[in-house]
Each structure stands twice: as C-alpha cells, then as structure tokens.
Amino acid sequence: xxxxxxxxxxxxxxxxxxxxxxxxxxxxxxxxxxxxxxxxxxxxxxxxxxxxxxxxxxxxxxxxxxxxxxxxxxxxxxxxxxxxxxxxxxxxxxxxxxxxxxxxxxxxxxxxxxxxxxxxxxxxxxxxxxxxxxxxxxxxxxxxxxxxxxxxxxxxxxxxxxxxxxxxxxxxxxxxxxxxxxxxxxxxxxxxxxxxxxxxxxxxxxxxxxxxxxxxxxxxxxxxxxxxxxxxxxxxxxxxxxxxxxxxxxxxxxxxxxxxxxxxxxxxxxxxxxxxxxxxxxxxxxxxxxxxxxxxxxxxxxxxxxxxxxxxxxxxxxxxxxxxxxxxxxxxxxxxxxxxxxxxxxxxxxxxxxxxxxxxxxxxxxxxxxxxxxxxxxxxx
Length: 381
Known about the structure:
Radius of gyration: 21 Å
Order of helices and strands: HHHHHHEHHHHHHHEHHH
Largest sheet: 2 strands, antiparallel
Helix content: over 70%
Low-confidence stretches: none
Strand content: under 5%
Number of strands: 2
Number of domains: 1
C-alpha cells in the first residue's frame, strides 16, 4: 500500500517530469532497435512535423476536456476543412492568402455550430461529436468526389513543407530563452508581492539552465538538417498562446472553473453556456489550422485525411495528464502527449511493426494513462 501511495504522490506532483522521462525511454528504445537511425536529425525533423498536426488538435481538445466535454468530430472536421482548402485552390484558384482566412472562418463556424447544440440545446457532446464525425466525413467525400486533389499553389505547399532559415532559428531560440527568463522573473516577483512561497535562486537558475540546454539542443538538431519546420514553429506559437490563455486570462480561469464545478460557476455570474460554445469554436479553428497544415504537408487533399485523428488528440490529452473528469490539465502536457503518440507511430513504423500491433500498443498506453489519472486523483484525496 505504501508503494502505491508513493506512486500516486510522485505522479501527482511531477506529471511533466514523468512524461519527459517516458519520452527519453521511448526514444532510447527505438534508437537501440534502429541502430541510431531514429535519433538522426532528418527523422526527428519528420517526426516533429507529423506530431505538429496532432498537437494543434490537442491544443483545442485539452480545453474542451477540461470543461468536462469531449469532441469526437475533430478528425472528420480536419479532413473536411483540408479538402475544402484543396478545392478552393484547384477549382477556384484562390491565392493562399485568401484561402487561409476562408477556411479558418469556416472552421470557427463549424465549431460554434457544434458548441451551440451542446451548450444551448443541451445535446450531450458525445452525441454531437459522433454525429459530426459522420456528417463531416460524408460532406468531405462529396466535396472531393472520393478522390485525392493535388495542390497547385506553391505558397500553399510551403505552409506545410517550408523550413525556417538557420540564422532565424538561432535568433528565435535566443528570443525564446529571453522570454522564459522574463516570465520566470515576473512570476517570482508576483509571488513575493502576495507573500507566497518562492523557490530559492539556485533552483530557479538550475531550471532556466536546463530549459536553455533543451532549447539550444532542439534548435541545433533541427538546423543540422534543414532548419525548424514551419508547422513546428506554428505549434510552438500555439503552445505559448494557449498556455498564456490558460494561466493569465479571465477566460482561461473560467474554463477550469466550468470543468471543476459547473453549477457553482454559473451561480457566480459566469455565462457557462457561452464559455462552452466558445471552446468548441476554438476547437473548430484548430481543426481548420490542422487541416490546412495536413493538406499542405501532403500537397493534396485526401478523402481519408484526419481518419482517427480525434482518437490521437484525445489520447494526447489524457497521456499528458488532463483529467477525464474535467477541471485539470495543461496545454504543455497535451503537447508532450502528442509527442509520445508521434514517437510511437514513427518508431514502430521504422521497425516495420504490423499496424494492428501499433493500434494495440497505443490503446494500451491510453488505458494506462487514464489509470494513472485515477490513482493520482485518489492520492490527492
């Protein structure tokens, strides 16, 4: 019993650290099995480009789950919006600068449509998502006529395949490290102002040094191949924006409040219905962005695009420590969960593991992640 209690306490306090250790073990295993090929700059660059699409979905999904809801339509919505973008490019010859806002607006409207059914018409989100999964996939087949549509616009393709110049990558890493120092110092000053506990300076410095080493290693590795892929850069921007929204805005606090205690939040004067509908609108935006990126990366709109994408996004959130009961979770954890899912896909593909074994492994890890959430919650109580 004491061992189980220790596991509960450790996982509850150090979820992100446990996830990073899990990634290190997964990468070490696949590097051993592939004679080091898994850890080459080219493979890791491709891995990160692949996981960026799942990470975009996970950024929106983590807020939906925190609010106590679920969205099963995101994979089909991704496919539909990516297919619409391909049709606008090939059939209507729209320039990408015009194609992009149209598809983003369509994604927002579809997300708000889902959210309206859930928040105002009180249809369970599971049913709305299931219906959307079927409807959006059907519309996608109709839009593409069941065939793959090759993209013609070079600027569109560059959105998913371009790389940041090497020099720009190093400049970006310095700016990012500077921002980390700024936010760390601001957080420390705010805690002192409100007489809250503050970590010793050596601990803060050690954390910043570790972050600096990770950033430098990450950028150096990617620059040794072609540079930072544009989808990865976009994913990092979303990570910063969504993390800021969760931690430092009124809307972010309301998301957690709605998931923790819906009735108490409503009685406190918060328009909980509007909050939930807004979250699904945000989810629609992420589906549009992921759909555009996926179509650009493949240089084609496919009727099978986004298949099972909702399961990867949901699994990424749960693996990243988002509670299935709502009210708890982080965007960083969801991104790390997406990296774990992508690492498993990439590594098992390199080992030529049969597709059914890949599904078994990913399903088992999802089950394990939810079980860890259950026992860590029991430890907190």
